[in-house]
Amino acid sequence: MIKKVLIFIFIGIIGFYLVDIFSQIPFGEKRDNVGDFYLEQSVQTLKVANSVTGIVVNFRGFDTLGEVTVLFLAALGLSSIMYRRKKQGEKEVRAKKPSSRILQVGAQIIFPMVVVLGAYVFIHGHLTPGGGFQGGAIIATASLLMLITYRKFKVNHNTVSWIESIAGVVFVSVGMVGLLKGMAFLENFLDVGELNSLLSGGIIGIIYVAVGFKVAAELTGVIDTVLLNNRPDNNNENN
Amino acid sequence: MTWLIIPIIILVILTIGSAIYAVVTKNLLYAVVSTGLISLGLSLFFFILQAPDVALTEAAIGVALTTIIFIITIRNTTQYEDEPKKEKNMKGELSND
Amino acid sequence: MDQLLTISFYGTAIALILIGLYAVLAKKNLLKIVIGLSIMDGGLHLLFVSIGYIKNGTAPIFSPEVLNTKVQMVDPVPQALVLTAIVIGFAVTAVALSLVIRLYRHHNTASIDEIKNLRW
Predict the structure, then answer these.
(1) Domain residue spans of chain B
(2) Model pLDDT for residues B1-25, shown as the tens digit of each residue
(3) Fewer beta carbons below 10 Å: N end or C end of chain A?
C-alpha cells in the first residue's frame, strides 16, 4: 500500500515538472532555427522534393547508418537469444488445421498488390512521403500474411541473409566512393537532376533502395524466427 | 486548424482511453489490441500535425509488426495476468493438473 | 480556443508518458512492463513532432503546385529525428520480448515477484 502511494507521488512530481516546462513553449509559433536553412538548401542545392528525405539521407546521413546498424544488431540478438539446438526427429510445429477459405483466396489476391505498393513506396522516396523504412515494413507485412495463411510457405534463411548483407555493403560502399574522390563520407557525387523527376537528388535514390531491401529482408527474418520457434509441449491448451 | 476541434477531441478520448484500458485490464490479449489502437490514434495525430512521413512509419511499424510480435509472445507465455505457477515433479517434468 | 489546442496536443503526450511510467513501475507481469515501455515511446514521439508545428503551415514537400507560391511550411527537423526513433523503439521492444520468452521458459512463470524469489 505504501508503495503505491510513493509511486503516485513520484509520478505527480514528474508530471508537474513536465507541465511546467512545456507550458512555456507556445504551440505553433515560428522560431528561427536550422529548419529554414534545410528547406532552402533542399530546393537549391539538392533538388529533392521531399525535404525530410533529404535531411535523413544527405544532411544527417550518418545517423541513418547508425539506425541500420541498430536494426541489424536487434535481429542478430533476437535470433541468438531464441536459438535452440534441434533434437533428433523434431520437426517444425505449424498449425493443426488449414486456415479458412476466405483467407486463402484473399491472400492470393492481396499479396502481389502489397508487394508492389511497398516497392513503389521505397523507390519514390524522394518525391512523395515514404522511404526505405516504410517500404521495407510494408513488404515484411506481406510476407507475414503468407506465413499465416499457408502452412507450407517457407522462408529460405540463406537467401534472406545474402540479400541483407549485399544491401548493407552497397550502402557503405556508396559512402566510401565519396571518400575516395576527395570529399566527405556520404557526400553527393552524382549529378543532381531537375526537381520532381525520378532521377533527382544524386545518391539519395540508390541509398534508399538499398535500405528498403535491407529492412524488408531483416524484418522477414525476424518474423520467421519468432513465429516458428516454439516447443511442442509448452503450448497453451486454451487456444 | 480551428475547425478540426471536434475530431481532435474524439481522438484524444480514444487514445487516452485505450492507454488506461491497456494498463488496467487483466486479459493480456485485450491489452495488446489496445496498444494497436494507441498506435492508430497516434498516426492520425501525426497526420493532423502535417507530418506524412512519420504517420506512414507509425502506421506500418506500430500497428502491424509490434502487435504480431506481442501476440507470439503471448502464445509462448501466459494469457492471463495472474496465473498459478505450474509445478514440476521430482524429475523436472511438468505435472498435468 | 488556442489554449484548448495546446492542452489537447501537449496534454495527450504528457498523459501517455505518465501512464506508461506507471505501468513500468507498478505492474508485476513482465509483458505489462514491456507494454508500458511501448506506450511511453509513443507519447515521447508525439511530444517531439508537436513542438515543430507552425500555425497554418503545410507539409514540407515541394510538389509542383507549391513551388510557384510562397507558403509557410512546418519544421522538418523533428520529423526526421522521430522517424529514426520509431524504428529503434520497435527494435528495443522486439529484443525485450525475446528476453521475456526466454525467462518464461527457464523459470516457468512470468511474474517478477516469483522470479526474484527463486535465487538459483
Answers:
(1) 15-76
(2) 677 888 899 999 999 999 999 999 9
(3) N
Chains interfacing with A (3 or more CB pairs < 8 Å): B, C
With a CB cutoff of 8 Å and minimum separation 6, the contacts of C65 are none
Instruction: Quote the number of domains for chain C.
Output: 1
A70–C94 C-beta distance less than 8 A? no
Q: Do A137 and B39 meet the contact criterion of CB atoms below 8 Å apart?
A: no
Closest CA to B77 of A95, A228, C30, A148: C30
In a domain, A222, yes or no: yes
- Asked if C83 and B57 count as a contact pair (C-beta separation under 8 A), the reply is yes
Report the amino acid identity of residue C1.
Answer: M
Distances (CA, A) of B48 to A88, A137, A187: 56, 23, 34
A121 lies in a domain? yes
pLDDT (tens digit per residue) in A40-67: 888 888 888 888 998 998 888 889 999 9
Domain tally, chain A:
1
- Pairs of CB atoms within 8 A across B/C: 133
Give A191→chain B minimum CA distance, Å.
Answer: 26
| Predicted ipTM of the assembly | 0.88
Picking from A7, A43, A55, the nearest residue to C25 by CB comes out as A7
Q: Which of A134, A223, A230 sits opposite B57 (nearest CB)?
A: A134
